[in-house]
Amino acid sequence: MNIHYLDNSATTQVCQEAADAAYRMMRENYGNPSSLHKVGIQAETAVEEARGIIADALNVQPKTIYFTSGGTEANNTALFGAAQALRRRGDRVIVSAIEHSSVYESAKRLSELGYDVQFAPVTDRGVVDIDALKALLTDKTILVSIMTVNNETGAIQPIERIAKLVHKNCPEALFHSDAVQAFGKMSVKPKKWGVDLMSVSAHKIHGAKGCGALYIREGARILPLLYGGEQQKKLRPGTESAPLIAAFATAAGFSDLSLHAEQIKELNRYALDQLQAIDDISVNSPCDALPYIINISVAGIRSETMLHHLEESGVYVSSSSACAKGKRSYVLEAMGLPDDRIDSSLRISFSRYNTTEDIDALIEGLQSGIATLQRK
Length: 376
Known about the structure:
By secondary structure, this protein is of the alpha/beta class. The chain is about 40% helix and about 15% strand. Strands 2-8-7-6-5-3-4 form a seven-stranded mixed sheet, with helices on both faces. Strands 9-10-12 form a three-stranded antiparallel sheet. About 50% of the residues are buried.
């Protein structure tokens, strides 16, 4: 059976170039980057070269990039590190109601620790309500976190506009953006946009799982989550995973936006044309969403039921964020979708390896599922 993998927002296949880079680091350039001898210095050189590649992709200086174990650690470091560093200036933390669980749950934990946590609402398009956000900003606000692209719907947030709003009304606050679903798929410029902290991840762009990075604007101060070493200016101590870092940089180097953007747009149009022609399917993603993601609902069929029906045909999608492990989507709830739409939602997500054959297999699977599962 052919595999039609359309769950690339959960993770992507590691590209051959990234796998080769990791293998070389593990077998040939295997020194500890902190060791002072030649083998260690060679590994450190590779890590610093990778830092430069990630920095270039974000249009920032290499010294502002800190490698982590992934997007979740980067998000946790940003939220807890900023909140603790600025506690004496205030206690209000604002995140959107549609953040990834690594931000959403971190915010809930900050609330338990005594911070005044507020969840900014979104419109029915899944975009942050700017007026509502502005109303939440006070002189006690120390941190605002709004994702660049939503991981379930692909909704693109007006990050530059939000950053200006935050800094104008709360000049002492730090603004963080989780750009895990945006990095490598659209132009991401934290410094130009006015973002103080930004999280990115490797395994969403054909790098290996277990590696990510946090951008920290020069002059922005946050506290570390971990202690015990001199690595990365003590902000993220511990021996750097040089193989995964090298793979991350290699994958980022192959994420050619100009090369892949039109391909993904064409796939998105091809898929939407066929999906919208099916009466029982509703599209939940806004029309201007990142083309890598389409969120739909299939009337009368629960998400998990349709997901497994598609799987039998070798078509792989997800019911929501992979981190939710099947729980109801609070993102779609925040958008105001009715229960039946939420309970029947599916996320389709593309990578540069997908073709129209994958879309054809998806449509065929959905049509057969509607014909058989609705009767049951």
